[in-house]
Amino acid sequence: MKERNNPIPEDIVYPFSGIPTFLRSKLVTELGDLEKLNPTIAVMGVPFDEGCPYMPGSRFGSRTIREHSLRFSRNGYYDYELKKILLKEELSRGRIVDIGDVNVIPTDVEGTFHRITQMVETVMKKNRMLITLGGDHSITYPIVRGISQPIHVIHFDAHSDFAPIYDGYQYTNMHAFRHISQMPHVKSLTQIGIRSIRDTSVLDSIAAGNRVVGMDEYREIGPKNIAQVVPEGEPCYVTIDIDAFDSTLVPGCVSAEPGGFLYNELRDSLGAIAERNPIVGYEMVEVAPQLDVGTGITSYLAAQTVIEFLGRICEQPWWKEKYKNNRETEAVTFQSSIENKV
């Protein structure tokens, strides 16, 4: 073959090739390797959908969200509002790792929930931020259970997921926030975008003292001001159900409802929250790829939402201060590696 004077750069890769880790980050499945690498961000998959009383399928969501994350450059993405490339350092310096999936055993709901909680505790004990790709919304309960510090929970959804608990009927995607609201380390629960007319248990959530913001009120408040629903500067965990988006945007969702968020509304809301409050972790749930159109637009939308939220988090002063020591250690290690090569 003729030698090329202008060869294709080795870092140019396409979405149909490579191992589908999130944003092509390093796959780390051994605890020892996690401690050695000491990343600031860990991505976890929970392919569980046995909390769906109606129609399953979101067990495949974590996989397809990862696959669609390969469509984004491993050199970061361009933010049109900030007019700069975001996540470039996080990706190039290996600050993001994919820790694979929780071991989900079919029909062993309580055992799976126990393993979810264990993995959360393992990841977060070193002050890392956890990103979870579901799975159905029942997984939020064991995730929040594994967080030790006091937090505010911010919940974007079309439904309150606050169904009454009965013996033998308490671990569905309709029950998670009934459990979470009773946890002593959860300082507040704010539910935004709630609008399903089938959801009568929202009255129980309001009666329990939770802040419920419907779409009409949300649009009065606006995306830039919605972050004021929690005290500024206090740690938050954010959970995003893909059905928070309007049903026209998410064909690959079992529970989609009309009248929901446009993409820029939810993106800007998440960005505003990141500006005001430290984020200890967040999740994307309820993507059901087998229902989606051929392009996989719902998984793509989920991936972009997760990525843009992460980009905005990593731009915040609180984030840079929190991981200042990590970056200083990283700089020394990087300099040593250069000297060794020389």
UniProtKB/TrEMBL annotation:
Keywords from the named record: Hydrolase, Metal-binding
Cell cycle found in the keyword field: no
Top-level taxon of the source organism: Bacteria
Coiled coil regions, renumbered to chain: none
Signal peptide stretch: none
GO molecular function: agmatinase activity
Statement: the UniProt record of this protein carries the keyword Cytoplasm: no
Stated family: Belongs to the arginase family.
Record-linked Gene3D superfamilies: Ureohydrolase domain
EC id: 3.5.3.11
Pfam families recorded: Arginase (PF00491)
Protein name per Swiss-Prot or TrEMBL: Agmatinase
